[in-house]
Amino acid sequence: MDEILEQVLRNAVWERLDMLTELADTEEQDLVTVARSELPKLTEGWRELLAMHEPDAQGNCPECSSRWRQQRSPCPIWRAAYDHLVGGALSARPPKPSMSRRGAESTDIAAERQAAVGMRATAGAAY
């Protein structure tokens, strides 16, 4: 039962991200309304995730570390946050292709998604 719930939750998150990506590409007036609704949710989600990955007194990430291997800060979550929230605003990189589940994904995007899923699984195994 837990596996089914986990898959339902993952699918719901990916679908929400797809919806937001599609909305960002539209020219509709309703975009402001959606942004006012969704941006606070996204920023609060990032804050909660980053709070879980705050380094401990030894400078290790408590979520990414295991009993046998310590993950020094900044962990992959903090590096991804910087890359997506700060670094992307400062660097002149070409935009990544859409990560829509409905369209064909490039092998790079599929590999990134698999790495992210593996990272989440690894972080969950630290318990």
Q: Quick one: overall form?
A: extended
Q: What string gives the helices and strands in order?
A: HHHH
Average the pLDDT over all residues and give the rounded result.
74
Calculate the terminal CA-CA distance, rounded to whole Å: 20 Å
Count of individual beta strands? 0
Count of helical stretches:
4
Radius of gyration from the alpha-carbon trace, in angstroms: 17 Å
**Unreliable parts:** 90-94, 102-111, 119-127
- Main sheet overview: none
Percent strand equals under 5%
SS-based class: mainly alpha
Helix content: 55-70%
Which oligomeric state applies? single chain
Q: How does this model look, in words?
A:
With 127 residues, this protein is mainly alpha-helical. The chain is 62% helix and 0% strand. It is built from four helices and no strands. It is extended and about 50 Å long. It starts with a helix and ends with a helix.
Question: Which SSEs are present, and which pair or pack?
Answer:
Blueprint: H1 2-24, H2 31-52, H3 76-90, H4 107-125
Question: Main attributes?
Answer:
extended, 4 helices, single chain, mainly alpha, 127 residues, disordered C terminus
Summarize the structure.
This protein is mainly alpha-helical. Helices cover 62% and strands 0% of the residues. The longest helix has 23 residues.
